[in-house]
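Before relying on records like the one below, remember that each one covers exactly one chain. Contacts with other chains, cofactors or solvent are not represented anywhere in the record.
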Amino acid sequence: MGCFRVLLCIICPPLAVMDKGCGSVVITTILWILGWIPGTIAALIILNNPDR
C-alpha cells in the first residue's frame, strides 16, 4: 500500500477501495456516511487484507 493510497483513505475512503469490488465500496461508503473515522478504518483494513 502506497502513500497515495493512505492519503486517499484519509481524505475519501470510498475512492481508495474502488478497485476492491462493489461490496467494499458500499460498506466503506455507508461507514463513511455514519462517521469519518469508521470509514477510514474500514478502508485501511480492506486495503491491508493480503487475501484480496
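The helical segments are 3-11, 13-16, 22-34, 36-48.
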